[in-house]
Write a structure and sequence with these properties.
339 residues; single chain; mainly alpha; elongated; two-stranded antiparallel sheet
Length: 339
């Protein structure tokens, strides 16, 4: 086969794939727009307007990681869609994949740290809590841990041969290598999947305990309110005001905790399909090449659903955090509509 014939066939195959994957490219572009605007607002409001709020300490850092993640992963996946089988920049492929994985794992570890903080706050209020020093130490540990887990990526990912039986041509795809470093790739896949399962299990266990504690406290308050309503008193006790303020503070703390619980649920749901595909890629070196166009589009959508995790949080804050929504109204309307 002449070079001209091979190049034209490869071009035809690549264009067909680009057209097939166009819906995912449009989705990713929308994710970048929403993610950049949403996470930038979160960083500005929580990092500047609500700076110093202990309950919300990790939010601007999580938003920064999500901002970097959506720009890197969505941007790279768009370029992949347009050069699915004629990718030619080996170093760009390796390091784009590395930084994409790094930001995703950073975000995952941060969610675990937040879950531990909420568990201590709600379930162990009289135990030692996370001080500013320990929060900073936790941030450092998440970065080091993410860097260690991501370290094999530049070795296990690169330009891999992609073959089409229909076009009878071989191209190059930026993906997990199927002919080199197979043992390392398999070991890395096992580590990542065990780590994901461990973090998901930890999130479920921690937030189950948190949920039970919140439910028990709410039931206790209901009982107290029923008892106080049954007894008519002319003079309220001096401590009633303080008790009411304490309840309001606890309700705010519970609401913020429920907000983080929802964020963790979104993470688990959006990231699970990626883990399944991660395993399928490792078990079948020609997984993507063997898929017909429509099936490929479906699996490609499943492969990028994890990006939702990086754009959903601002919506959660807007609906569940009163202070954040108030600051949003002040920013866009010039005054607080709730006043």
């Amino acid at each position: 086969m002449s070079n001209v014939s091979r190049d034209s066939l490869l071009d035809a195959w690549n264009q067909e794939l680009s057209r097939t994957l166009l819906p995912t490219s449009v989705f990713l572009i929308l994710c970048i727009v929403v993610g950049v605007v949403g996470n930038s607002l979160v960083i500005a409001i929580y990092g500047l307007k609500l700076r110093g709020a202990k309950e919300r300490y990790f939010i601007p850092y999580l938003a920064l990681v999500d901002l970097l993640a959506v720009c890197e992963t969505a941007g790279f996946n768009i370029s992949y869609n347009f050069r699915a089988v004629n990718y030619d920049n080996k170093e760009l492929c390796r390091w784009s994949t590395f930084f994409g994985f790094l930001t995703v794992i950073l975000s995952t570890f941060l969610l675990l740290v937040i879950a531990i903080q909420r568990y201590l706050k709600i379930c162990k209020p009289f135990a030692k809590q996370m001080t500013l020093k320990w929060k900073r130490m936790a941030m450092l540990c998440t970065f080091v841990g993410a860097a260690v887990i991501t370290a094999p990526i530049p070795v296990t990912y690169g330009l891999d041969p992609a073959y089409s039986e229909r076009f009878n041509v071989t191209g190059s795809a930026c993906r997990r290598l199927t002919q080199e470093y197979i043992s390392l790739s398999l070991f890395h896949t096992i580590i990542c999947n065990v780590g994901f399962a461990g973090i998901v299990s930890a999130l479920i266990i921690l937030y189950t305990q948190v949920g039970r504690t919140i439910y028990a406290q709410m039931e206790h308050w209901k009982t107290q309110e029923s008892s106080s309503n049954a007894i008519q008193m002319d003079n309220m006790p001096d401590g009633a005001n303080n008790s009411s303020i304490s309840k309001r503070k606890k309700r705010t703390m519970f609401k913020i905790t429920l907000m983080f619980m929802l964020i963790s649920v979104i993470f688990i749901i959006s990231f699970s399909p990626k883990v399944v595909i991660f395993i399928l890629e490792c078990l079948n070196g020609r997984f993507w090449d063997s898929l017909p166009p429509n099936t490929r589009l479906l699996f490609r959508f499943l492969d990028i659903t994890f990006v939702i995790n990086n754009i959903a949080n601002p919506f959660v804050y807007a609906f569940l955090d009163v202070k954040f929504s108030q600051q949003l109204r002040r920013t866009f309307c010039g005054h607080d509509l709730s006043a």
